[in-house]
Write a structure and sequence with these properties.
elongated, about 100 residues, mainly alpha
Length: about 100
């Protein structure tokens, strides 16, 4: 019970410290009002954050596709059918694991 109380007190102290830092930064940046969940600015930023994650994932996928195309072009397999490419890919993975 004593350990739990110490953890709670420590967590509360960290929370108070974080709130003081936020208040200090808000004063420095002259923030008039905080965003609330559901307000227009909050929703706009949330949408931009989701789009940013989506674009990052899309860029990663594009990079992987280009890398695979370069691998296939090195092996002169660019025009190979999908099933044969899958078999070759599995064989390459199996050989690389061995």
């Amino acid at each position: 019970l004593a350990k739990a109380r110490i953890c709670v007190d420590l967590s509360y102290a960290k929370l108070q410290h974080a709130e003081m830092l936020v208040a200090h930064v808000e004063v420095q940046l002259a923030v008039e009002a905080r965003w609330e969940i559901g307000c227009d600015e909050y929703n706009q930023f949330k949408m931009e954050a989701h789009l940013s994650k989506y674009r990052t994932a899309l860029n990663d996928l594009e990079c992987l596709v280009v890398m695979r195309l370069f691998e296939l072009s090195k092996l002169s397999l660019l025009g190979t059918g999908y099933k044969l490419r899958q078999q070759i890919s599995k064989a390459l993975q199996w050989h690389s694991e061995a």
